[in-house]
Structures are given as structure tokens and as C-alpha cells.
Amino acid sequence: MSRPLIERFRSVLPVSDATPVVSLGEGSTPLLRAARLSESWGCELWLKCEGANPTGSYKDRGMTVAVSKALEDGAEAVICASTGNTAASAAAYAARAGLPALVLVPEGAVAAAKLAQTRMLGARVLEVRGSFDEALGAARELADRGSHVLVNSLNPHRVAGQKTAALEIAEELGGPPDAFVIPYGGGGNTTAYAAAVAELGLGTPIVSVEAENRPATLASAIRIAEPVHAPRVAETGARVVSASDDEIVRAWRELAAAEGVFCEPSSAAGLVAVARGDIEGRVVVTLTGHGLKDVASADRFAPAVGTVDPDPDAIAEAAR
């Protein structure tokens, strides 16, 4: 069994011997070579499968650090605004720490599977009549009052934990890739990867892929109209590109069929930049969340299920 992320990367995280480690076994996620897509797209493509984290997304890397530090500082509760993945992660790690969690989500804008996961993990979930940005504003105000610790990526401990994905990639490849490619919602992960690149003393480019229509994209995890980290993303020098929903769905389905990897739609945004052929060499695309995070979208775009009698000949005919 792998060590908790905090123990593995203790020397580069803001923790001490006094920090209680709140862990669910996060980190050490698979890095897979995508042989078929590499051939199709003309590069050496690798996939960092962050959906293998305990709650099914990369958010767990930062949440283990954020909640551990909150517990160390005597927090009585945690709060976040979320489009889904932060919600589930905050709920899980708060439960692990024995802390209440308050989760604010934009009304009608979060995948049902993520809401169900968060509710099962014991968080108090409130739908805000407004956008994610409005929900985040309210969460920040409540945190400022001292009643809750904010565990969104504005919390620097979140970003510190999330940088470990890039450190793992460089470690497993025996050196940096020619480019890190990641989805771009709020921008916290871009700043985290930039921090890792700086700590390693590298000049590896980061390509951050956002939805062309941020407020209305089907990729709900990156459906953030005003990314709070946009100024910091600009400072990192990351190249920001846009992907249409049609491109995201096409890459999402191709990944599943060609490589047997099922991610959520927002994760496929990074693949769009590679599929276009404008990134060369050894490229690592971070798939930020598991496909089961958004089963409604999968059901919408997956091939139809057929119906057949329980007869071998009829089955063979239908399978052609």
C-alpha cells in the first residue's frame, strides 16, 4: 500500500511533525502510455489518471493537505463552493477528520453523481440561486467571519498538495515531459503545476485548456465563468487554449474507445489540444476526474444499448 501523500512529499509541503495527517490513500495515481492515440495524433502521449484518487478526482491531493492543516489550526468546520469535485473531496476529508463540511453549489449546474457522492459523505449541501462565482463569494465571506475554513484552491495548502501530481509525473518518467496539459476551470491546478515546474528548476511548458463557452459548457467541472486564479495563471506563462464542446466530446469518446480510459468530460478538454496536432514530443495530459463523476453525460453520448432475444444466432447477428 502506498504511503499517504503528505508522508511521501513531506519535505516539499507546508506541514510539520505537529500536523495531523488526514489521509484516504491519495496520490500515486497511474501514468499510462496511450499508444493508439500517440500514433493517431503524432506525439508520445501519456495520461495521468487522477480519477484513481479516493473520491475520483485530483482534488484529493490538495484536500489532504488543506484539511490536515485546518485540523492542526483548530478548525471547527470547513466550507467550499464547488462545481462538484471539490465538494466530494471536501466532504470526504472533513468526514475523515471528524469536521463538519458546508458545501455551496450553483443551483442546477452540478452533475447529479457528484451531488449524491457529497451528500453520502455527510456534508451539508446547499444549492445557491446563482453562479459558481457567487457561491464562492459567499463561501469566502463566511470563512472571513471565522466560522469555517475555506478549502477551495484559494487556500494555499490546496495548491501545495496539487503540485505533487507534476512531481510524480517527472519522477516516473525519469525527467519532465515536453509539455504538461491540463483542463482549466478555476486555474488552481495550473498554478500548482507551475509551482512544481519552478521547484524542479524546469522550463516545461504548461498548456491549460478551457471551455470555449465557460458559463454553459457541458463539461460541468470547468463551468466557471470567471476563474479566480486567472491573474496568477497569466503570471505562470501557461498557454491557454479553448476547446468547443463538440471537440471535448469527440476526444472524450475517442479516449475511451481507443485506450480503455473513462474520464469525465472536463478531463477530455486537455486532449483536444493534443488532438489538434499543435503539441509535439512527449506530452502528459492530466485526466482530472473519473467518468463515473458524470454518468448522465456518458449516458447521453455513449453508443445506444441494443435489445435482443436470448438466442445465440440472434445475438451474433445483432453484434455485427
Explain how this protein is built.
- With about 325 residues, the protein is α/β, with parallel strands linked by helices.
- The chain folds into two domains: about 5-55 and about 155-300, Rossmann fold, CATH 3.40.50; about 60-155, Rossmann fold (3-Layer(aba) Sandwich), CATH 3.40.50.1100.
- Helices cover about 40% and strands about 15% of the residues.
- It contains 14 helices and ten strands.
- It has a six-stranded mixed β-sheet with strand order 1-2-10-7-8-9, sandwiched between helices. A four-stranded parallel β-sheet has the order 5-4-3-6, with helices on both faces.
- β4, α5 (about 110-120) and β5 form a beta-alpha-beta unit.
- α3 (about 60-70) crosses α7, α4 runs parallel beside α5 (about 110-120) and α11 (about 245-260) crosses α12.
- The longest helix is centred in the last third of the chain and has 15 residues, at about 245-260.
- It is globular, with a radius of gyration of 20 Å.
- The relative contact order is 0.15.
